[in-house]
Amino acid sequence: MVIVISEYVLKRNEQNGVSRVYYRGKNKLKCPECQTELVYRDSKTRTLRREGGQKEYLIIFRMRCPKCGKYHTVIPDCIQKNKHYASEIIQGVQEGIVTPDDEDSVDYPSITSMWRWKREREDHY
Fold first, then answer.
1. Which positions ≥6 away from 99 have C-beta within 8 Å?
2. Which of 20-34, 50-64, 66-80, 88-102 has the lowest mean pLDDT?
3. ∠11-16-18 over CA atoms, to 5°?
């Protein structure tokens, strides 16, 4: 399960160019299933593609619920579950702001991805 956070800080390591996501919320993260406070399990690297085709690497963390045993990936709201493109790019495509004809969208995302994102939005409404 994925937990999306909006209160976070990205700290970039200048040596390797990887940014670590730090949760800065006032409340502890809780399991969406049983509301038990989550404990840190491990972290993993996630690729984020920003405007202009720039890649950024984020270290996101995974948590485990000590009560029900479920694992939860914690992601910042600048990315979406199972997507590598920034949320603002996906929203731009879904709202018709970003199109395959845009000059600055030549190196990202593919027409197939754009079509799929539009269909996903239509399926939700």
1. 93, 105, 114
2. 88-102
3. 40
Contacts for 35 with CB less than 8 Å, ≥ 6 apart: none
End-to-end CA distance of the chain: 22
Question: Could you give the residue ranges of the DSSP H alpha helices within the chain?
Answer: 87-94, 111-124
Q: What does the angle CA 39 – CA 4 – CA 46 come to, to the nearest 5 degrees?
A: 85
- Give the residue from 49, 34, 31 showing the smallest Cα distance to 107: 49
Residue 43 and residue 49: Cα distance in Å, rounded?
19
Token pair recorded at residue 111: 């027409």
Q: Say what the pTM is.
A: 0.72
CA angle at residue 120 from 115 to 124, to 5 degrees?
Answer: 150
* 90-106 average pLDDT score: 70
Q: List the structure tokens of 101.
A: 């004809």
